[in-house]
Each structure stands twice: as C-alpha cells, then as structure tokens.
Design brief:
alpha/beta; binds zinc ion; single chain; binds adenine; TIM Barrel
Length: 340
Amino acid sequence: MWPTAELHVHIEGTLEVPLLLRLAERNGIDLPTTDADRLRSRCSFSRLQDFLDVYYEHLDVLRTEQDFCELMLAYLARATESGVRRAEIFFDPQSHTARGVPMAVVIGGLSDGIARGREAYGIDGALILCFLRHLGGAAALATLEEALPYRDAFIGVGLDSSEVGFPPSLFADAFQRAAAEGLRRVAHAGEEGGPDYVWEALDVLGAERIDHGIRALEDAELMAALRRRAVPVTVCPLSNRALRTAPHDLAEHPLPVMFDEGLVVSVHSDDPAYFGGYLDANMAALRDAGVVDDAVEGELAANAVASSFLGTEGKRALFAEIRAHAEAIGAPVPSRAVAG
Ligand code: ADE
Ligand code: ZN
C-alpha cells in the first residue's frame, strides 16, 4: 500500500453494520431491522438522496462520547490497512445536535478517538466540520458559532448533504466567518450539481479543495481554472458508482481524464461502509478497470499528500515514506514526491 492521505471521508459514513447493531442495542434504539444482511441490502441507491436518507437514519444510534470515540477508532484502525498516514475527516454536527446530542459530546468523542488512534496506529487525524446544505445558510452560521468554543479541535469547514437546489452561495456568510477564524475551507460541488456549483464554491466560498468535482469536466473553462489555480479535487470512484453519478464501468469514470488534463486529483472513500469499501477497495476497483497501475497509484497518493492541510514538515515526512515505498516495490518515484 502506498502511504497516503485520506481527504474525503465522512466519519458517519464509516458506520459498519456490526457497530451499528451494537450501538443500537447499547442505546436501546429501534432499527428498521436487526438482521445484518437486510441492513446491508439497504445499500442500493439510485441517487444521492436515497443514500442520505439511510445515512441519517442509521447515525441516530450515535448518542454518547464513547459511541463517537469508538466510531472514530474503528475507522482509523481500518484506514491504516489502506496505507493512510494522515486523515482529514468530515463530521456532520447538525445531524447530531438536531437530535439533542450536544456539540461537546460529538466533538469530545471524535477528538478522543483521534488521540487514541494516533497512539495506537501512528495515524495523524484531523477534523473538518461540515455544514448540511439542506438546512440552509443561517443554520450553518449558527452551527459554526456553536462549535467555535472547540475551535482547536477542528482544522476547517466543509459543505455536504443534498446538493441540487442548495448552491454554495447560500453559505457565503458561514464560510466568511470560518475564514476569519483561520479555518481551512473545502466544499462538495459538482457531485450531482453542475459546473456552476464548482465555480461558486471557488469564487464565492473561497474553497481550497473541491470534493467530488467530477461534473467540472462539462466546462472546459472550469477545467482550465482548476488546473491553473492548482485546486485539488478529491474524487471518490466507488461512491460515484454507487450513487450513479458516474458510469458503472469505472473504465469510463472521469478520473483518468481529470488526471491526464493535469488536475491535482486524488482518490478517496467518501462513505466506505455504504459504497463498497475503503481506499484500498477504491484503488483495487480502479486497477481492475485498467485505469490505474503502480505508477499512477503512486502519483495519486502523492497528490493526496500535496493536497492535504499538513504543513511543510508533515508533507516532507510523508513524501519520504512515499519514496521509500516506490523503491521497495520498484515503481517510479511520483513527481510530487521527488524533491526531498
Ligand atoms: N454526506 C455524506 N456523504 C455525502 C456525499 N457523498 N455527498 C454529499 N453529502 C454527503
Ligand atoms: Zn463526501
């Protein structure tokens, strides 16, 4: 496994069925079924909203700090198996505070999990607070204010949930406030929404990374701007396949075109418990489709590290690990990892 950074994973989307069942029982919560296979069979979607409906229903089992800590620790343990050395992890606080779970419980439990994961697996985790776009701009700003007492526990803000009908410009105030606090800014755009959503994320929100962004391909000027500004795009192939936002055959996925056109693309897992697997599964599926070989996988891993919010020293250390891995498997050193 190439050492790399995971930049697009929703912690609530890592809730695997066994943990879902255990937490439901521990917290006395009724699920639609307690049959593991039936729960798994709910993971058949034809669009983003189908998935989100199941995702919000399942995350209701998360109630206590211990629950959030266990979820995080389970994710970090699994991520290390995919070569992940740095993880910038999304969380959706509004999906919890709206159910009466205090912000302190959410952030406290997740932070505790990150600290334990660092100790146990040597993985460097960080949190990115996402606003739920279907709840609107005023709620986003209020959520940020509610989280600011825990400012040191997260590195940035993001934007997720139902895309079409909720354009990035609705969230200008929240993102402006986040920037004033020195928080990093990312946004989902161009997943189901068109290139205009990506333009708004860049030019209205000041997004430093675009999550998904696959519909950027429909706008040559936007592709040129992403390339010229070197804005990283975090691409999630198994998610796109599961939500039918890209062709089922990964040989026809936009990733290779984005890569060939010089965009800073990297591969990520989005909601691995729902879409068929973690970073390693995404890479294996791309390999099976003939889209990726050792050399391209190395470039994608190095792109992920370059696109992370690590400082110079942190990136330098991971690039050194990437060079060592290239040597060990006899692959070329990825271009972004060449300089020491
Ligand atoms: N929340 C969790 N996963 C998401 C996705 N793929 N798109 C938008 N919001 C999400
Ligand atoms: Zn996502």
